[in-house]
Amino acid sequence: MWRYLAGGTAVIALIVAGFMIFSGKARPGPLLPAQPVAQIGGAAIASDPLPDTAPEATDKTREQKRFDRYDKDRDAKITREEYLVQRRKAYARLDVNGDGTLSFDEWAVKATTKFADADRDKSGAMTAPEFATTAVKRKGPFRAKCPPPQGAAEES
């Protein structure tokens, strides 16, 4: 008998919950906090107003930006010297003893250091968990920090 009573109560509770959901009475609160408002001369003005127009994006493509990074003198041409500047800097960082020649140990210093750091037990070989620490850590996708939409504060 008590099972019929519990079942009937559950059915009534589901009907009431469905009615509340579909009638629009059960609405979540605002997702963002309300913006602070300052009173100036009796009129409410937002303390941090948004600009009237959106900022303009540059027309440069990714390749044009890359070209500009290499073209240091801005003459619309990349000379051999301009092209090799980054390679020279990288070479100088690798040439630890500064003799102008790059030995294999100098060239492989990053890999050698990475191996030594990963080989925790200093056995000269990496186990699977040690090897897992050598994986390249990738950055997440770039996300622009945009202000909240204008209508978000007005909805509450």
Automatic annotation (TrEMBL):
<protein>
    <submittedName>
        <fullName>EF hand domain-containing protein</fullName>
    </submittedName>
</protein>
<dbReference type="Pfam" id="PF13202">
    <property type="entry name" value="EF-hand_5"/>
</dbReference>
<dbReference type="GO" id="GO:0005509">
    <property type="term" value="F:calcium ion binding"/>
</dbReference>
<dbReference type="InterPro" id="IPR002048">
    <property type="entry name" value="EF_hand_dom"/>
</dbReference>
<dbReference type="InterPro" id="IPR018247">
    <property type="entry name" value="EF_Hand_1_Ca_BS"/>
</dbReference>
<dbReference type="InterPro" id="IPR011992">
    <property type="entry name" value="EF-hand-dom_pair"/>
</dbReference>
<feature type="region of interest" description="Disordered">
    <location>
        <begin position="46"/>
        <end position="65"/>
    </location>
</feature>
<feature type="domain" description="EF-hand">
    <location>
        <begin position="82"/>
        <end position="117"/>
    </location>
</feature>
